[in-house]
Amino acid sequence: MSKGQATRERILDRAVDLVAAAGLEGLSLGDLAKATRLSKSGLFAHFDSKQDLQLQVLETARAHFIETVVSPALRQPRGELRVRALFENWLAWEQAREKGGCPFVPASHELDDRPGRLRDALVAVQRDWIDTLAMAARIAVEEGHFRSGLDARQLAFDVYGLFLAFHFYHRLLRDPEAAGRAIDGFERLLAACR
Amino acid sequence: MSKGQATRERILDRAVDLVAAAGLEGLSLGDLAKATRLSKSGLFAHFDSKQDLQLQVLETARAHFIETVVSPALRQPRGELRVRALFENWLAWEQAREKGGCPFVPASHELDDRPGRLRDALVAVQRDWIDTLAMAARIAVEEGHFRSGLDARQLAFDVYGLFLAFHFYHRLLRDPEAAGRAIDGFERLLAACR
DNA sequence: GACAAGAACGACCGGTCGTGCTATTTTTTT
DNA sequence: AAAAAAATAGCACGACCGGTCGTTCTTGTC
Lengths: 194, 194
Known about the structure:
homodimer; mainly alpha; DNA-binding
């Protein structure tokens, strides 16, 4: 790998953290340059525009998410275990990044009223993730772990709600019971699926 | 009421809409001046600083929220009906503001890592609201509508999750079924409380 | 060792931000 | 109607924004 390529990856990894903390708009070239100990222009030479940078940050975050949340869960056996793994890895993903948390959550609220390529890219990522959740639930029905007739997309909605509530209680309210509450809610949800 | 007072309230009302759309940081004095047809300096004379403006915007939003969500629900009879009213008014509050949605949701994500008076004020508002939800649930236990031993604060957590999922599906994904999903989830939640 | 390509630099552009100071207009009080 | 007070406008500031420029340092190839 060329040196430029390596630097660009270093920039993007650092940028994902900054986005998780301050959002996609809060990410400024100056801050990112300081964080990577590059000059602003030296950094900017790696990207066509700020939007290009933001798109690449989104793509980098997506790759991280798939690597640490989705892929390990897909190695679990089909059915309830896999659904559990998806949710638990998701919570861990949010907690692991000590400084920022999940970068998609702030991005979702910044972009929900701003049409454009950035928003389209984010929506695509989120739809994929919801599809993954729903598909895992549907497989659990096939396996006989969940009752037939279960609305898998409704389950995905409910689970997403638990994650967002966790994010909110954890990051804004600093509630130490946030994770416990999310897990309790998830168990109650699963019990209703059987 | 003096004219200045009236203008200030007009500014704050308009500012709440802009915050709902663009967040507390996205609110700029220039934009707000244009929206209220004042000069930037003429507008600024009403406030000590931008932070002062933001604090007053938060307080204005809080007053609106209590007026349109909490107070009408407290006029409902104690018990399940009141819990229902709180949730339904909450959903309606989010949908009523055609341009912006709930101003507290974007603010929560902007401020979750920024200590200061703004964050403290927002946390206080949110804690009050969660207490209101939990208290209504506890009353429903007293009235015999909900089973005894119910964890009222867990219910508040779950309900908050449903609202956030609704907000996310509605505003980012533009899912027309968002409200239906939230209501379905709420009904399932209530059924488990009885 | 020459030389081109890649990578990073510092200076700078026009624009917008929050914020102060001063003048002018409008409202209120006498 | 005059004087006092309040409300608004005009203007300029320093800081920072995304982005461009020409230059320099590094790297690898012939």
